[in-house]
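Dear support,

We are seeing what looks like truncated structure output for some complexes. This example has three components. We would appreciate it if you could run it in full and send us the complete token output so we can diff it against ours.
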Amino acid sequence: MLALFYRLLRHFGPQRWWPADTPFEVMVGAILTQNTSWMNVERAIGLLKGAKALSPHKIDAMDIGTLEGLIRPAGFFRVKAARLKAFVRYMMEAYLGNVDAMAARPGWELREELMAVPGIGEETADSILLYALDKPFFVVDAYTKRILERNGLIRGGESYGEIQRFFMDSLPGDVGLFKEYHALLVALGKTYCRARRPLCDSCPLRFEDG
DNA sequence: TGCCAGGCCGGGT
DNA sequence: ACCCGGCATGGC
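Here is the complete output from our reference environment:
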């Protein structure tokens, strides 16, 4: 799988994910981007910034209706407002809203905690662990599954954990590598591997050739 | 105009 | 243990 990584890197160049100014912004983005295009998430985050509301304490104290209004462009705004509320509540209770205190804990324990927060599943948890807290967990998203499936590397029925192990067992456990690899898979997916659309013939990165 | 986007949950088999 | 409908906005 390392060979594929270097091919992707040569083709698309370094992605330098996650696009955010702070770890907390990564966490908020991870929740807002659930089944949602990143462009819409950017708008919502822009509105949160404009309202000077991008902190655990502010979101915790904010009226939920106000929060819904700010994140509206990200879609599913009622569920996501509730999810953000539940997440910052957890952050306040467990870490007084302090990201550094959070990052000091072992990754696997954090993953358990995150998964226990309503609205945070495996991908969102791993995105937070990897991109906000620099913990070595490989992120598996819809693009990753689709790309592997269309290239015959998996059958299609595999669970999240199986696909994650597929990567983590065959790669050095390096945070920088995991970040860049997932970002590159998304870059490939956005360009050549959209849902319910045949694999683009012009895709320069079919795995079986080269 | 319909389809799609960096999921997750709850209820039903 | 899966499978499905619901959740909502904005670009192409």
